[in-house]
């Protein structure tokens, strides 16, 4: 007497094999996509930027109020910073370029940043005839428009850092700096000297 045992796949086993094959294909595809993404992103310029007020305190000397733009290189390669500028009206194309004067408080432009390096570009908030706060407050008023009043433009004020190669990085100006500018505008009455109505259009 002979007993024959036949092995056959069940529907459940077929389904399991299908999902295993599909999972392997998806894993391979994901690995290819990730590899491609990493190869492309490794050459991108990535900067960590902030624009704020800082108090520089030195022993035996009065503190110095600074407007400081800090830039950190998060890329996988060195980056050369060529310039930075302020945009006072999100709806306009006019910007205010900043060139930090030679001083012990600031790095100079252009500036090379190696991987992981940081640099600070600073100007004095008050500096005699070169009063950054007052000059910028007046610029906010001059660049206001009918569709974007000065207080809205100031609310969305940004600082943009531009490398010699690669995309620029834009960051919103800190709340403390925006409040300082608003206070200067109101105390000096600059908001009563808005541009002529013809300049709105």
Question: How would you describe this protein?
Answer:
This protein has 201 residues and is of the alpha+beta class. The protein has one domain (46-200). The protein contains four helices and eight strands. The chain has helices at residues 11-41, 132-142, 150-155, 175-188; strands at 47-56, 64-73, 79-87, 95-98, 111-113, 118-124, 158-163, 169-172. The strands form two sheets. Strands 3, 4, 5, 7 and 8 form a five-stranded antiparallel beta sheet that branches. Strand 1 (47-56) and strand 2 form a beta hairpin. Mean pLDDT is 83; it is low at 36-41 and 196-201.
Task: Provide key terms for this protein.
alpha+beta, 201 residues, 8 strands, 3-stranded antiparallel beta sheet, disordered C terminus
DSSP summary, beta strand count? 8
Low-confidence stretches: 36-41, 196-201
Mean pLDDT: 83
Element order: H for helix, E for strand = HEEEEEEHHEEH
Quickly count the domains: 1
Described by the principal axes of the CA atoms, the overall outline is elongated
Rg: 28 Å
SS summary, helix count: 4
Sheet with the most strands?
5 strands, antiparallel
Class based on secondary structure composition and strand pairing? alpha+beta
Binned, the helix content reads 25-40%
Share in β-strands: 25-35%
End-to-end Cα distance = 104 Å
